[in-house]
Amino acid sequence: MTTRHTISHADELYAGNAFNAGYSPDGRRGIKMTHLYAHEFLSTAGVPATLGDTDGILSSYATPSLIGPTGTVASNFIALCTGALVTTGATIIEFDVPRNIVFSSCANATTIFLKVLGLDMYGQPMAETIQGASQTAVASGQRCFKSVHTFYSTTKFGGIVTMGTGNRLGLPFNLADKGKLVAASVDGVGITVSGVHATAIMIPFIGASAATTITTANGSADVRGSIKFIAPALDGAKRFTALIVVDHSTDRKAFGPPQVTACSNGGA
Fold it and tell me: Which CATH number does the domain 58-169 belong to among 2.60.290, 2.60.40, 1.10.1760, 1.10.287?
């Protein structure tokens, strides 16, 4: 529990007694403090995030018509889930850290729209429509859920269906552009964005615009952004950390626009 804290609503904070007239023509002393935030992708239990489980929600579910008959909005099917991430009879699926949702269907003749509703890392309701082409291998969502409360489809699934989580992990603050990602590391070894360093590769996904509300036009982005760790994999032992610059001047710039809370056919 925090016992002491200092609060300031100042736009800028300066520390120290250093002075240079060219740097501070108004005569102020000190060096401007930066707003860097080092985020470790750890679960509430204090252990590193484990590997994404692509069938951790639905594992070879062979009666897909129950998930969403054509033209209807089906009920919550979490209680029917068979994956390793689900407690038997559960109505809510909790993840170790915020993750994206993935699914596949082996025998669909039409485009699939999977609707997912749940909560983000701050307990705010969120929703996403994940679109998959017919007979897609894996359709990957863009937004990172901390928990899933409901999923359904208005498209009839065909064949065996699997559903689970990917290796895209959600950030706690808005990643406005790639330049705001200062560094990322695995067990203290730096990772590059598009190249390889010590066999480590990752892809940052920029958050939705801080100036707009998410719509179907820009709805694929997570409101804060995310990072997909490719190599080495999330194995439950290595420590994955990201260092980002946080703009704390407004709620939206720090946390991104509000979450979308309802689904539509073309996108959440």
Answer: 2.60.290
